[in-house]
Design brief:
single chain; 12 helices; globular; 465 residues; alpha+beta; seven-stranded antiparallel β-sheet
């Protein structure tokens, strides 16, 4: 069944609404390129909309009631928001869950080295990437360095237009005959994704007494600059989290201004739309929750990933503040909940039609994408939503006239992918994947349709009602 293109149903007023909403999203995407930056911005937005820190509520031994809105941050890299409904929480919650980590290059713990007066940083790629896409493009460094004193230093290098960028070199085509014969997975090896950060030896600008005793003068100059601007030394890389990401803002795309191109739209496009829908929801019957987590791209592991007990623990704390905590209430609250696992899907690409089965592909312009299941090949690793729940979600979309489509990730035997859906489903709750269709997924610059972004936010709002 072919769904109607949502642009065709837009009058001038709605087009303006779409453009205004997507401009705010584009700013968010440009400014929030790491999970820490996304969490910080989510906290700001939550506070602006009347949410208070759950940890403060606990510390002051306050009780909560319907209408109260709280949030909790997990190590500054994940966040959950709750809007307490009028119905008892053991009747379940309405949950939106997305991830805020994206594929990138992580700087190693002992990264800095000099080779023939060039200084490079060693990296380890994070998540599934085509390594050859990350060479010969401008990169920025984002992250934190934590000193042994406990002081945390925020680092951003390469985002200001007046700031310098860094990057990974590529082999010139004139000498690349052997390289061009390699498989795409071997054209650029992981250990070759080292970032060029300097080429000026210490003492080049002026007489520098420090340079006399340095064997690696270029490296010494880079360290001197880092010490001067940010206040950390080489050994402090050991307790740093620095990420190399594409430099510069997300851009409006298309002669018709109908798309957005930018880094990290998997899955920040769903994180942003989920967060906005959550903040727009007022006085719900069932408690609503928005969960933005880390580490999905590497298996949802670790203390800030979905596999952690963070969400369960914060739900328990919330129930405790409602004055009704017991383990049975917690288990019922989780089991009776309904969730949309907010994650992107592969948009049909006319340049690569053989990867898609058109009847079950997602397309630009046709609204929010629902995936009954993800996984790979024989649905391996999938949460396969039951038909009853799919029907309920469809009814919510149609009630609010939300443009939506149903799709799979691609042809059955071509590949696949997973989300956080199956983890929440382990509690017995009803879960289905849904989100925005994306071209160039996991590339440095991904592409989305503005009408799909807007309709996804509307779809999340309809679900939370």
């Amino acid at each position: 069944m072919t769904r109607e293109n949502a642009w065709t149903k837009c009058d001038k007023k709605k087009i303006n609404q779409v453009m205004e909403f997507c401009e705010e999203y584009r700013k968010f995407l440009s400014e929030c390129k790491t999970e820490r930056e996304c969490t910080d911005r989510a906290v700001e937005m939550a506070k602006e909309n009347g949410y208070v820190d759950l940890m403060d509520v606990i510390a002051k031994n306050k009780t909560l009631k319907p209408g109260d809105k709280v949030y909790a941050s997990n190590m500054g890299k994940a966040i959950v928001l709750f809007n307490i409904g009028t119905k008892p929480i053991e009747q379940g919650m309405k949950i939106l869950g997305a991830h805020i980590d994206s594929p990138r290059l992580d700087v190693k713990q002992n990264p800095l080295y000099e080779d023939e007066e060039l200084v490079l940083m060693d990296t380890h790629y994070y998540g599934g990437i085509k390594k050859y896409q990350w060479v010969a493009i401008p990169l920025a460094l984002h992250g934190v360095v934590v000193l042994t004193s406990g002081k945390k230093i925020d680092v951003v290098i390469g985002e200001d237009m007046d700031d310098t960028v860094v990057g990974v070199s590529d082999l010139l085509i004139h000498l690349a005959a052997e390289q061009m014969d390699k498989k795409a997975s071997k054209v650029v090896e992981g250990e070759a994704l080292d970032i060029l950060v300097g080429s000026m030896p210490m003492g080049s600008k002026k007489k520098d007494d420090e340079a006399k005793n340095e064997k690696e003068k270029t490296k010494a100059y880079i360290l001197k600059l880092l010490q001067k601007k940010y206040g950390f030394k080489e050994e402090d890389f050991m307790s740093a989290e620095l990420e190399a990401v594409p430099a510069g803002p997300a851009r409006n795309m298309g002669i018709d201004n109908s798309m957005i191109m930018g880094y990290g739209q998997d899955d920040r496009v769903c994180a942003y739309t989920s967060l906005v829908a959550m903040l727009k929801t007022e006085n719900p019957e069932k408690t609503t929750a928005c969960l933005l987590v880390d580490k999905e791209e590497i298996g949802s592991v670790g203390a800030t990933g979905m596999e952690s007990k963070f969400f369960e623990n914060m739900t328990a704390e919330l129930i405790g503040r409602l004055g009704s905590y017991n383990d049975l209430t917690l288990r019922r609250a989780l089991a009776n909940s309904q969730m949309l696992s907010s994650d992107v899907n592969a948009a049909y690409d006319p340049n690569y039609p053989s990867a898609f089965e058109k009847k079950n592909a997602s397309f630009f312009g046709r609204g929010i994408v629902f995936n009954k299941f993800t996984g790979a090949r024989g649905k391996s690793g999938s949460n396969d939503a039951n038909a009853e729940y799919v029907a309920k979600v469809r009814a919510a979309m149609e009630r609010d006239d939300v443009a939506y489509q149903m799709a799979e990730l691609g042809k059955v035997d071509v590949g696949g992918g997973g989300t956080i859906a199956y983890i929440l489903a382990n509690y017995g709750m009803e879960v289905m994947d849904c989100g925005v269709a994306v071209q160039n997924m996991h590339a440095p610059y991904e592409v989305t349709s503005k009408i799909d972004i807007y309709e996804t936010m509307r779809g999340y709002l309809a679900f939370l009602k």
